[in-house]
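Batch manifest, entry 17 of 40.
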Amino acid sequence: MGPLHINSYRPTTMSVNGMITTPHYLATQAGLRILQNGGNAMEAAIAAASTIAVVYPHMNTIGGDNFWLIFDAKKKKLSALNSSGRSSHQATIDFYKQRGFHTSIPVRGYLSANTVPGAVAGWAAVYQYSKENGLGTANWSDLLQSAISYAKEGYPVTPSQQYWTEVNLDRKDQTYRNLQRFPEFSRIFTNSGEPWKAGEVMKQTDLALTLEGIAENGADAFYNGSISKQMVADIQKHEGVLTDKDFAGHVSDWVEPLSMNYRGYTAYNLPPNTQGMASLSILNILNQFDLTHIEENSAEYYHLIVEATKQAFSDRDEWLTDPDFLDIPIHQLLSPQHGQTLASKINFTSAYTNEKQLDPKGDTVWFGVVDKDGNAVSFIQSIYHEFGSGIIPKGTGVLLQNRGSFFSLDPTHINHLEPNKRTFHTLNPAMLLADDQPFLVYGTMGGEGQPQTQAALVTRIVDYGRSVQEAIEAPRWLYGRTWGVSSNSLKLESRIPSEVQQSLAELGHHVETMPAFTDVMGHAGAIQIDPNSRVKYGGADPRGDGAAMGY
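Output type: structure tokens
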């Protein structure tokens, strides 16, 4: 690596031993503590994941799903874990139609919580991998102590949590935004009916007891014990769909990661049911162009990546579902030949009009960890919309995800609802390897914005030589729509020069100017590793509440 660029608001964090970056500083500290005490990247990730599930509840909880990319330095092997939950064995299209829902699944409430939360099982599977492969020394219960402490003793609410709570207490909206209509949500996530204010100390006593049960009895307590029985009893009382059988039947799967060449690096991501195929497809298309001949942050740069995104999303929307229910031609879709075909469809004089409404929402946390031995983790955890379903089974403190509301009730749709099925998932952690060693651990929150921001990070670091912090802070874009809007727009941060925005509008993009560092663009992060010096370079997004820390 050459000298670091310094054109960033925050410095790039550097260390020779371990490095962790997360979108919440308390989670970063929890993971760093494990690294400093001799733990590996997997153990640090479990500590950070459980902590952030407590202190960033509008973005993720233990009632959500997670996905992992794990590099085992001893074996020089990259593994992938899919810990997303499947739909209930009772979840059918007829089930919803009999209850008056003919076009879509409710976005909030008990009927939106129709998939088993896989997050806790993901932590357990990775812990078991670490132990079985002789990599780990920490006790399971020790990894959850930070999370338990913050749930029991409290943590200062962030401005982000306050804002998203305020947004979701819209009493006029009885179908989506008014989460106060759910008694347990109101009791825990409001202070006498008002949002917890930034800096106020919020406790989650029920969640602390649940986490203590998981710490003492393992993940089985969550899926086949007192905790699951408590959750199911409340769900069934309110005519929800999840059952004891659904929780007990959950399985997290080790899967073969997808990979492809990008400028001599090997880019890795998760296979379906995630949209990792779309993230890699964008890079596959960009491989057909020499970006050194395209000025960074020019109209041509933004136009190219947005148009590549449209082509990648077209394939994704045609094929992406649970691969147990459909044979997806993934290798053909990511072949160099197919990349050339998609690239040939890009017109540099006009924008392609995508009629499908894209929803770039997705309240999620991504983080990365690299330890002193070279083990690395790229991790993502989510409850889908902010505060998920809004449902907290009484006495558990577990805020359940609404990921299953993304299933279609149209039996001809590629992602239509069926029992025991995983839905289309936007989550996709990423990693670049060079010479069979991690070079870049990276990712972001943001639903359909994830592949777009991943492309921004990779091109700016690999093609333009930016530092990780520069790449994260650089002006970003997001193609898609937002709630209440019926058409797609190209959202551009205001730091993108007005003449560039005007040029994009003249190409046919529906340009929408956003604030300079809006969290609409997601909270990104990255760790770059210098193979020669062992120095790790960590970056965190000023759009979020995170920090990169090393030792």
